[in-house]
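Reference record
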Amino acid sequence: MTYRKLCALPSPKPPSHRFIQSFPNKSMKFFQGVMIALLSFPAMASEESASLRQWMHSRLTAEIVAPHPDLNLVSSFSMPLVTDVLTTNHPGSRKLVLRLSHQLELWKRYQWQCGGLVDLHLINGFLRRVNADVDLSASDQQLRDCNTTERLLDVANSLIFYCGFSQRYDQKFVQTGLRRLLKRQRQDGAFVRENGESGYYLTSHALLALHFCNAEAEALHRARERLQLLLPQFRRDQFVDGVAESLIFLRWTGAPAINEKEYLEWLRSLVGAGGGICFRNHPSCKPHWHTVSLMMQLLLETDH
């Protein structure tokens, strides 16, 4: 991911004594990393991002202490959480990063299926950007075995981790995963699930995997064009989550959406006073954590 112009920020406040005790070495490493990273990020905030942050902090805090956490939710929030630390140096987000790092040390001892294992490694990959990651090498082989899973979305997500957020690059693993994905791409750029039906999230995540893993340009181009084509229909259908994810992934793959500014303004108008935003917009809709995480990330990228 590429970010913006050089700008100096005030030094972050020192962590509380309780967090220094809990993370004696990691805290120093983490805050040194944040101070270095902050040299590249200006500090700005919109009303929408402030309310989204409050919603995100509340929901993520509850999930971290849950007896059976939803790692997909935690993984989704880890992305804007770390970006928030890097872009705004928000103290609440810094504190949550350290809590999440501590919890990751506990979660890695559990037995996870491929979906949870990929999420665990993605969380760790995001935390690595602020030097708050933990050692998950004991589960590396189990993660590689996920390339044989029947769920193509797990394959796409494992490739996103290995090519985008891991320090260990396994070429055989990556090439095997890419071959599986590319066999499922239609000529119109969409990726089809195991039952032969096309799926938006498989296509969007496959696009990111192709980009991070430097796949063939033609396949990447077709996937981008597919998302560009879907955006107007998504807005007409009030599919908020699809619009937000498409804007982010198109930006990350080097081809921002046509009329991106108009889509952003529409998304901003949908953020509620309490910081929530619906998965699909309709009069009785309720805020959804996935859409909140995407919207928070999008505003952090475009407001700074």
Summary: Confidence is low (pLDDT under 50) at residues 1-44. Residues 47-235 form one domain. The radius of gyration is 19 Å. The CA atoms of residues 117 and 139 lie 8 Å apart.
